[in-house]
Write a structure and sequence with these properties.
Blueprint (H helix, E strand, L loop, with lengths): L22 H9 L4 H4 L19 E6 L6 E6 L2 E4 L25 H5 L2 H15 L4 H4 L2 H7 E3 L3 E4 L7 E4 L3 H12 L15 E3 L5 E3 L4 E2 L2 E4 L8 E4 L3 E2 L2 E7 L18 E8 L2 E2 H7 L13 E3 L4 E2 H4 L3 E2 L19 E2 L2 E7 L7 E7 L7 H9 L10 E3 L14 H4 L7 E4 L2 E3 L7 E9 L4 E12 L6
Parallel strand pairs: 6-22, 8-16, 9-26
Antiparallel strand pairs: 1-2, 1-5, 2-3, 3-4, 6-7, 10-11, 12-15, 13-14, 13-22, 14-16, 14-17, 18-19, 20-21, 20-25, 23-24, 25-26
Length: 459
């Protein structure tokens, strides 16, 4: 590995001796004596609106021009801490013999180690980045090798995704779509409140934020009384989603019990599960989405761990009827994550916000999704990706797709600068972002972006 130059070292805070806190931190500690997350501070300067304070430390895979080998890093402020450089500092029982997991080009092996190793790694990293710990703070050579500006790094998919499952777990979204196509009285199918509905998606077309998405060609049936036609999708849509990565898996034939499901969930990313609505309408009966969904699924590059999100756990959605015992849990496993979707038309700098939603609107929790997925004995593996389905809220401005925002194309959606949309046009860039708001800090996911390219001309 080449040694990176330290032309622009991270902006270290004013150094303090161990045990000494500056006046403003003493005051905050007094005001929030029980909020340990609030009191943590890094020697790296991190602005209050940054998505990546010491309370977060999401994992990703990156490379640099100096060293094109992909490796594991964590985001801190505007920098990446290169874990491959500091493997010798992971000395706990869970990681001292597994240090090479941080030198790999994917997070799968680290995910496989399970929650004890994840907690140990997080504790070690927070200690090393603490403003009072001199190990990294005062070692100029190590700092220069270990910290990389995010804007000089290339991000990669964080895991080798073996399988991808998409659920349908937002009651507001399911109700909206059902109302459009079946009427208000039959909006939810009879099974919807009894099980987390889902389908197996295509893992090969999961791509990283920033990857362009091409408008697909396919069969559609514009008029019910005429034969189908072939050509470019006309009703291109985004879907605001989040997804979790499976950590340690299970063996074939052994379901993951609901009481243990959280131990198999590594962390979350933002997701845009692009959808060709007109292709889907024609193909989905009787087996569900196929070509309308395999054209591309975009995820954000940083995986935010469940441990980082736990301070923002909220009450689970009230479920009626009560789920079967294999799906029932009372511990909080829903999260207050603010979500936003913007659209930027080609040739403009304006991002028109079209949706503000929240992950807490989910009816089915991630624990329930995983327990249901494996109740048959289906085996899941480290790096498997499981998505929430479109996340809509109860108000019109919280609808998580153009299908809902335009109410099946019956009205226009304002994206700013005099531009309106019913569905996405070529050149449109969709930008999804999300964060939890703490007391003076944010736990964020960065951005999940993708731009629509024109369909290929078919001969």
């Amino acid at each position: 590995m080449k040694v990176q130059s330290c032309v622009n070292p991270p902006p270290w805070k004013q150094q303090h001796s161990v045990g000494h806190f500056p006046h403003d931190q003493r005051q905050r500690s007094k005001e929030h004596p029980t909020d340990s997350s609030r009191k943590m501070k890094s020697f790296i300067e991190v602005s209050p609106d940054s998505h990546f304070p010491i309370q977060n430390l999401p994992y990703g895979i990156f490379s640099t021009e100096d060293d094109p080998c992909p490796r594991v890093g964590v985001a801190i402020g505007t920098f990446i801490l290169d874990l491959s450089v500091i493997t010798n500092l992971f000395t706990g029982d869970e990681l001292k013999n597994n240090k090479n997991v941080f030198k790999r080009g994917s997070l799968n092996k680290f995910m496989e180690l399970g929650p004890a190793a994840w907690k140990e790694a997080r504790s070690t990293l927070q200690s090393l980045l603490d403003e009072n710990n001199p190990t990294l703070r005062d070692n100029v050579d190590l700092r220069c090798r270990a910290f990389v500006p995010q804007n000089s790094a290339t991000m990669h998919l964080p895991a080798n995704i073996g399988d991808y499952t998409d659920f349908y777990s937002s009651i507001d979204h399911a109700t909206n779509v059902g109302t459009m196509f079946r009427g208000k009285e039959n909006a939810l199918m009879p099974n919807w409140k009894y099980l987390p509905v889902g389908y197996h998606g295509r893992a090969s077309s999961v791509v990283l934020s920033g990857t362009p998405i091409r408008r697909p060609n396919g069969q559609t049936k514009p008029k019910d009384d005429e034969p189908p036609t072939f050509g470019p999708c006309r009703l291109m849509d985004f879907e605001l989603e989040m997804a979790f990565f499976v950590g340690a898996g299970n063996s074939l034939g052994s379901p993951i019990p609901i009481s243990k499901a959280h131990e198999h969930i590594f962390g979350l990313v933002l997701m845009n599960d692009w959808s060709a609505r007109d292709i889907q309408k024609w193909e989905y009966v009787p087996l569900g989405p196929f070509l309308a969904k395999n054209l591309g699924t975009t995820i954000s590059p940083w995986i935010v761990t469940v441990d980082a999100l736990m301070p923002f756990a909220v009450d689970n959605y009230a479920q009626d009827p009560k789920p079967f015992p294999y799906l029932h849990h009372e511990d909080k496993f829903n999260f207050n994550i603010n979500l936003e979707v913007g659209i930027k038309a080609e040739g403009t700098n304006n991002v028109g916000v079209v949706c503000k939603s929240n992950f807490k609107n989910m009816y089915w929790t991630m624990k329930q999704q995983l327990a249901h997925h494996t109740i048959t004995g289906c085996n899941v593996q480290p790096g498997d990706l499981m998505a929430s389905g479109t996340i809509s809220g109860p108000s019109e401005d919280s609808f998580g797709s153009m299908l809902e925002l335009s109410w099946r194309g019956s009205k226009t959606v304002d994206i700013g600068n005099g531009n309106t949309r019913k569905f996405l046009q070529d050149g449109d860039e969709v930008i999804i972002t999300g964060y939890c708001q703490g007391d003076g800090y944010r736990i964020g996911f960065g951005n999940c972006t993708g731009k629509i390219l024109p369909a290929l001309t078919m001969q």
